[in-house]
Amino acid sequence: MDSLSIAEILVPYQGRQRDALLPVLWDMQTAFGHIGPDAVRQISHALHVPEADIYGVISFYSLFSAEPTAETVIRVCTDPICGLAGADKVVHSLCHHLNIQHDETTPDGKYAISHTTCLGLCDHAPAALISQRGHEEIAVAPVASESDVLELQITPPYQSIVRGDILLKGADGKHVESLAKYGDYRALHHAITTLGPEGVIGEVEKAALIGRGGAAFPTASKWKMTRQAVGQPKYVVCNADESEPGTFKDRVLMEGRPHLILEGVALCAFAIGATKAYLFVRGEYPESMQRLQRAIDEATHAGLLGENIFGSDFSLDIEIRRGGGAYICGEETALFEAIEGDRGFPRIKPPYPTTHGLFQKPTVVNNVETLSTIPGIVEHGGGWFKQWGTEKSTGPKLVSVSGHVQRPGVYEINPGMTLRQMLEEFCGGVVGNLQTVLMGGAAGTFLTPDQLDVRLTFEDLRAIRSTFGSGAIMVFNETADLRDILQRLGRFFKHESCGKCFPCQLGTQRQMEILERADMPLEGDRERLRDIGLTMTESSLCGLGQTAASAVLSALEKWPDLFAVKGQPV
Amino acid sequence: MSDTVTLTIDGQEITVPAGTTLLEAAAQLGIEVPVICYHDATTSNGLCRVCVVDVNNGRLLQAACVTACANGSKVETRNERVERSRRTILEMLNSAVDLNHAPAIQTLMNDYDADPTRFPNAERREHALLDDNPFYVRDYSQCVLCWRCVQVCADDAQYTFALTFDGRGFDTHVATAFDIPMSESPCVFCGQCVGVCPTGALKPKIQWGMEQGMTPEQIRQSTRRPRRRQSVEIEEG
């Protein structure tokens, strides 16, 4: 791609509009390692977007740069699980080996070392993302030595430990399912020829499916509202921006079962009356993107996607959109802004996506895992789904388990089993003596060993003021330093706050500063953390800010002496 | 759907047209809900969250500037939760931004008993003063990120699109593309951004010169446009 000029890159985009901005920026970033003033000027002319706006978008996303970068940029994940696995040492030895500081470029312009937030390779920690000018990004894990990243001795895909017979059937993280193996979208055929759109929604309703993205919203209501909403066209957006630290179930699904996801997307589109769907995949998941694209091509070639599917008048175009590196884009309205070519600022709700979503049109946004449950529900009926779980938490549920367990991996659980059973039966038990479990991801809550008998269901977790969240379960034994974990969480939220509303923009910074001095706290730090935490939780504009203090507040409650000034009573 | 809604704000019942915001309804009752980012002439984005109020004792507080009144709501514009949020936001803002030229925010700090020293050793958002055109100066150390200037420069008023946001989160600041000087940007020097700035971040250059103790002659020199100077030179030449 190095040989292409800015103008040549822009050829296929002539006549397009602002929503082509992210794809254009990716092409430029990959080709030149940065997006400079000349590129911005020409993009501005091609897409009719003001130069200042384009610059603002570049500066918002972590994987874009307005300044020239090194030929190879190495970003090491420093979130809790990679931290536990020695990520700081990796950064240090890389910097030492290349004789540079963190965030510096070698004098020959060849390498730069930086950090990244979670890469979803927590079961192979520590992980790094390599961006080489002119090439697709590569995620590398586990990084054991400099040569792993400098000479790319290990490359994806990585074999994950997975266990499950429904959503994870045949998925091992290593092998991708072919269409021949998956079958000819039988559920979609059944929906088109027999059930009809209302029938599909009826089965989803019967299944009592709760969304797997974290907000725990009933999927069928969302679909019904969107189907009934006035306004055309309607859109389906698959939220594949999985970025919550400790979460990698969607990556494993995308890499292992792309056709299951695509069939789920198609069923949703058929049910709500959409002919266009977007898969918004985070920029740090190049492997997922490539596998999904191959599956789209395969299915389109076989007539299972595209025009007049199964000879009906139902047509569907599925397009992959690559995120630019921003956790906030997992928030559904920020995700729309990203697809529309803007900074990923979340919108004020209401109006909700079901009436005013992507391009202000009625839109269903569902998480990858949610959509992957649909083909089974449609083919076997809503009742089939209810053979797993409890009355309120139906169907198999995926969890990503990482940290101090014998077998970190992605597990399909039968909701209702306890956390203890899951850790023992699926993960082979805890390594060492359990100190705490961070349940639900960075935006989750800490559980203590006396809470291991909680049943893993939406309702039981809510009853103890915890959450399934993104399905991340991070396990820490007594050797883990809680202050260190909290510092990493603090840095994560500070890095990922979009900056739109004051409580989160200011609160994530102040929270991080206080967590970073936890070894030598100032008098009043506990009260400061509490005020910041409650203010962010109650007053922030979106879910990111509203949960950015969740883990910290639960830590304050469980271990009040964590931030006690030495020599003073707790 | 009915055309009006009836709700209770701080114990007083009021009926308003559907779509009225909580901020507007409270104002009709003579209840002043504090605001920082809100401005009559710009799109409300619910950024500062200083206008949050308690609706039905819900889990989340609601930004009064963007929340529509709902039938039967019970709204408290000032209680313990609301005060904690407002006070903490003000304290955090004061620890990050130079509010010396923002008297309205200073008054709010007093009203809510906000401690200006609440966050010691806090990183501040400091920026060098930008003096790159004859009309106004920009001191983003005083910027609270209310978005008004960016909005009036864009589709709230002028459609000039000279301004954007650079960076993300705490490190966000208002900027031109690639930080080019205003004189090289599409800016048409309409002055609307200066007019809506709630702090001293944007100031007319003459006002700034006077505050700096410059003489009238110095101010005149600094506010002359380069092109005009050139043409004068040609005439003189």
Describe the model.
The complex is a heterodimer of chains A (570) and B (237). Chain A has five domains: 6-60; 72-150, Glutaredoxin (3-Layer(aba) Sandwich); 162-385, 3-Layer(aba) Sandwich (Rossmann fold), CATH 3.40.50; 397-477, Roll (Ubiquitin-like (UB roll)), CATH 3.10.20; 482-563, NADH-ubiquinone oxidoreductase 51kDa subunit, iron-sulphur binding domain (de novo design (two linked rop proteins)), CATH 1.20.1440.230. Helices cover 41% and strands 13% of the residues of chain A. Chain A contains 24 helices and 14 strands. In chain A, helix 9 (186-207) packs across helix 10, helix 9 packs across helix 12 and helix 20 (482-496) runs antiparallel to helix 21. The termini of chain A are far apart. In chain A, 58% of the residues are buried. Chain B has 237 residues and is an alpha+beta fold. Chain B has two domains: 4-81, Roll (Ubiquitin-like (UB roll)); 136-236, Alpha-Beta Plaits (2-Layer Sandwich). In chain B, the strands form three sheets. Chain B has a five-stranded mixed β-sheet, sandwiched between helices. Chain B has a two-stranded antiparallel ribbon with strand order 6-9. In chain B, strands 7-8 form a two-stranded antiparallel sheet. In chain B, strand 1 and strand 2 form a beta hairpin. In chain B, helix 6 (205-211) packs antiparallel against helix 7.
